[in-house]
Design a protein that fits this description.
Rossmann fold; two-stranded antiparallel sheet; 2 domains; alpha/beta; single chain; 7-stranded mixed sheet
């Protein structure tokens, strides 16, 4: 099944299911019913079963799901059993934090290079990752395989997006407060920022008084 046939909301829920299952496995929970898993994930059992049908026939009637087996099936379906090479756009405090975060590597995501436009940052090495001038991007991407890019530069997010698109990087995570978009249907940009999430919550609070 091609990804274009998977509804965006379903993909979002599958990621939640995986995160919940990973948490359960850490707590040594071995099996779970669809009703209990649905409750933990904030959906109804029918929705859960429909979503998981995209992944395959995973449960046993009257028994439920093996936490370990379902987690592995979801990880494989979502591409999380593979290793992915990342590049960073912008040595912001958030960007530096990501480069130093070893938990990202444990999940199969490896920073291969980082880019910045400020002269004082060029040539630095953070947690084994070299910081290059953004103008060097074509040279770097010819030397290494790049699967994903993460943009954390608040002052020039569009400039980093343009550079990454020029290198045909198809998966981009934008963590700045400026939403970024492209008309290219073969490119996936995921926009997320704390201000965006907090704005949604502030709207909820304002209208729940």
């Amino acid at each position: 099944m091609k990804i274009k046939n998977l509804p965006e909301n379903t993909l979002h829920r599958l990621v939640i299911y995986l995160n919940v299952l990973e948490s359960m496995e850490r707590k040594k929970i071995e099996s779970i019913s669809s009703e209990d898993l649905a409750r933990r994930c904030g959906v109804n059992p029918a929705q859960l079963r429909k979503d998981l049908s995209y992944v395959g026939n995973l449960g046993t009637k009257g028994v439920g799901y093996s936490v370990k087996s379902l987690k592995f099936s979801l990880k494989k379906f979502l591409g999380r059993t593979e290793e992915w090479n990342l590049v960073l756009g912008g040595l912001s405090p958030l960007g530096e934090f990501l480069l130093n975060n070893r938990d990202i590597q444990k999940e199969g995501f490896y920073f291969m290079a980082a880019f910045d436009t400020r002269e004082e940052n060029i040539g630095k090495v953070i947690n084994g990752v070299s910081i290059y001038n953004l103008d060097q991007i074509s040279y770097v991407t010819k030397a290494i395989r790049v699967d994903m890019a993460i943009i954390t530069s608040e002052d020039k997010p569009e400039e980093y997006l343009e550079a990454f698109l020029s290198q045909k990087i198809k998966a981009i995570l934008n963590l700045t407060s400026t939403p970024l978009f492209t008309e290219d249907q073969d490119i996936k940009i995921e926009n997320f920022s704390f201000p965006m999430a907090l704005t949604k919550l502030s709207f909820f609070l304002k209208n729940s008084r």
